[in-house]
Amino acid sequence: MAGHGHPAHANGRGRRDPLRPPGPQTGRDAGPGRRRSRHGAPLPARRRLHHRLPATHRALATHLAAASGATVHVLDYRLAPEHPYPAALEDVLAAYWELLDRGATPGRTAVAGDSAGGWLALTAALWLRDSGDPAPAALGLISPWLDLTGSAWPDDRTDAMLRPAWLRRCAREFGTGTDPAELAPLEADLAGLPPITMHVGSEEILLDDAVRLAHRARAAGVPVDLRRLDGLWHVAHASAGLVTASTAAVSALGSSLRAHLADGERRLPAG
């Protein structure tokens, strides 16, 4: 969450859980520590995991850490239009693997993101599932921007934060030259994903997409906790500490992630 729409990784303390050796399902190079995206491009070995939180997400990350009882790592990933897809996704995956290489345990790790970071968190989870890599214990999606085409945005809802024309322009710059199907997690097979906690404001044009994701994920057997925050706006959580409802929303998200991290720890093998 290092800037608007950025994902974060929340880690509880756990034992070392080494990644298994490279294999044909993992998308990794044979060389040590080198991994490749499904496009064949080497993934960066490291991206910057912030210890100094950017002002835009300082309150959100701090309150989330307190509520979840976890350490929150904030990712500084590459941004479009200078770095279009798949750069941001590659950085998220590289950061996740870096955390595991540092000793984090997948069963004690959650991946969370707001706005476009929600899209990244969900898409990264799909990539990890398809590549056979260890999945995080849970996903936390805050006001996720899930449909980059905006094909189902309602015309009768006024959003004080988001304008459809601006969102579509950002999506074009982000996905230049990419098959639209590759940018559509709402249309993907969602089976096998980790539990999802999702918050969305009642006044957002993104509300219907969040509801649709919840329905499709539940139908695929994925546990989903969807909370519609009445009267709140896009990523209202960023006002935690200033707005009572925002603080309560982050507390609820953190409590849910804390429970999933505890469940993941209970599933770890003894030893």
Feature tags:
7 strands, AB_hydrolase_3, about 270 residues, GDXG_lipolytic_enzyme, Rossmann fold, Alpha/beta hydrolase, alpha/beta, hydrolase activity, disordered N terminus
Could you explain how this protein is built, in words?
This protein has 271 residues and is α/β, with parallel strands linked by helices. The chain has six helices and seven strands. Strands 2-3-1-4-5-6-7 form a seven-stranded mixed sheet, with helices on both faces.
Overall form: globular
Low-pLDDT windows of residues:
1-5, 13-34, 37-52
Radius of gyration: 17 Å
By DSSP (H or I, 4+ residues per run), the number of helices equals 6
CATH architecture: 3-Layer(aba) Sandwich
Largest sheet: 7 strands, mixed
> How far is it from the N-terminal to the C-terminal residue, by CA?
34 Å
Short description:
This protein is α/β, with parallel strands linked by helices and 271 residues long.
